[in-house]
Write a structure and sequence with these properties.
This protein has about 240 residues and is mainly β. Helix content is about 0%, strand content about 40%. The chain has one helix and 14 strands. The strands form four sheets. The chain has a four-stranded antiparallel sheet, with no helix packed on it. Strands 8-9-10-11 form a four-stranded antiparallel sheet, with no helix packed on it. Strand 9 (about 135-145) and strand 10 form a beta hairpin. The longest helix is centred in the first third of the chain and has 4 residues, at about 5. The two termini are about 30 Å apart.
Length: about 240
């Protein structure tokens, strides 16, 4: 967000484990872009553990108005091991300082054996992340299994359910977890059934298209479409345009 002054850029990528290229994870790389070259490049966040699975990496990054960096990390297809476990980084949304250090007011910073960078957990494969500067709120969209793709209001310390509660079914048509609802699990603002495979997420706040101001836009991988929703406070109607 301060590129004009510091020339810093950020990207996430699939990082092979240095001593075993059969394992990989999601990492954040940052460096300075000057004269078409990247200098001072380094990884500022490496999610753990490295795994052999080749899917559900996540990920998207955003900055909020206070300069905190949020990144979404997928659960790598290990639903029973990762998203509900605070001792690893997978299936989570993380909150970092711009240099990769961890803010001391993160919700699990002082929780024994928890990863200090975790902001929210219980995510499957969040590929869209959006910050609304007007409301100072963060939203994600993420892949469900067979049905159950979600749009969520992301809040500190909250559990978003995977795989305890979901509107989707497994690929063998069996129920996942207890079904759609469970005590202590955050409800999605919107879900799709059947799945659309949502990727990026944007809330439009520009001046050029007044009729679309505050509309939500989601790109989909399954149908290769662009979906527009009309927002009403914290509710996204289940039938968009």
């Amino acid at each position: 967000p301060d590129f004009e002054n510091n020339h810093l850029i950020y990207l996430t990528y699939s990082k092979p484990k240095p001593d075993d290229d059969g394992l990989a994870t999601t990492a954040i790389f940052s460096g300075r872009l000057e004269n078409n070259d990247i200098t001072d490049g380094k990884d500022i966040f490496i999610s753990e553990p490295y795994l052999s699975t080749n899917h559900h990496y996540g990920s998207r990054m955003i900055f909020d108005k206070d300069g905190y960096l949020f990144v979404s990390i997928g659960e790598r297809g290990r639903r029973d091991d990762n998203p509900q476990y605070l001792g690893n980084d997978l299936g989570k949304i993380h909150r970092l300082n711009a240099d990769g250090s961890v803010p001391a007011d993160n919700p699990f910073y002082n929780t024994p054996n928890a990863k200090k960078s975790i902001y929210s957990y219980g995510h499957r494969n969040p590929q869209g992340l959006c910050y609304n500067p007007v409301t100072n709120k963060i939203y994600d969209n993420e892949h469900g299994p067979r049905g159950g793709d979600e749009v969520n209001l992301v809040e500190a310390g909250k559990n978003y359910g995977w795989p305890v509660a979901t509107y989707g079914k497994d690929y063998n048509d069996e129920r996942v977890g207890v079904g759609p609802w469970y005590s202590g699990i955050e409800e999605p603002l919107h879900y799709w059934d059947p799945s659309v495979a949502p990727s990026s997420l944007l809330i439009y706040g520009g001046e050029n298209y007044q009729n679309w101001r505050n509309s939500w836009f989601v790109t989909t991988l399954r149908e290769r479409t662009l979906i527009r929703f009309v927002r009403s406070e914290n509710h996204v109607p289940h039938h968009g345009v």
